[in-house]
Amino acid sequence: MKKDYFLLHLSVFIAGFTGVLGRLITLDSAILVWWRMAAAAVIMFLYLRFVQTRRGAADAFDASLQRFKFRDVLQMGGVGMLLCLHWVFFYASIKASNVSIGVVCFSLVGFFTALFEPIINKHRFSGREFLFSLLTILGIYLIFHFDSRYRLGIVLGVVSSALYALFAIANQRVGKHYEAKNMLLWEMVGGLIGLTCLIPLYNQFIPVGRLYPVGMDYAYLAFMVVICTIGLCLLQIIVLQKIPAFTVNLTYNLEPVYSIILSMFIFSEYKELNFSFCIGIALIIISVVLQTWSEIKRRQKV
Question: What distance in Å separates the CA atoms of residue 64 and residue 58, rounded to the nearest whole number?
Fold first, then answer.
């Protein structure tokens, strides 16, 4: 139990870097995500192949890839497409406004999960979970008062949080049937194929510009792929197999705290640390603590 929650909070800490990296990398959000998923898919394939080869089981690895039915691949790839779309909207939100806007809007994931999960998983609506989400929304409102200049970034950020809530719920349902490493590989492949098909349409509305990284983009992408994609996604898949999706998503409301602090130092996105800011952050943290404590108590009774 304690290990599961430690891994959950470690994944949140790592996730705090993704918004900053999205701002540092100069590519369009869709192209950025394409490179992220392509590199992650290649690295995961080579890693799994290397591990099996060292064990003298390269043939077994090839067989393990072939044993998945088309339905299995379609399910995992579909989950990966949800993740892909979340990333595109998330980075588009950051590039249309700033890191603080993107990551604070991401805190709405808990609210959307409280709405979607009862419908998708067909269980009773939880007033308690909705109450925790409202506490988070109040915290978000107090952190900063949205400026009309950031209207597009806010809309994109809200869509991003809704997509991630769907991803987390789907990932939890599908992930119960597959090993985390295999699922991550097929999620990256599925998301990559889907995005490759969508980019020509995307380019009709939003010109993607440059298709290749330059300069420091390579270093930022490497860190994003290895640590913030492969490492983070493996942690998330493992955690979602042990902890309810709502608890995971609500805990991720701590991500803006890390990202805002980092963006203050890196991009000088200084926000006045006034009374409402402190109260807002406190409400987000309290909502996470209350849900975590409630879930631990519930499991102890089981």
Answer: 10
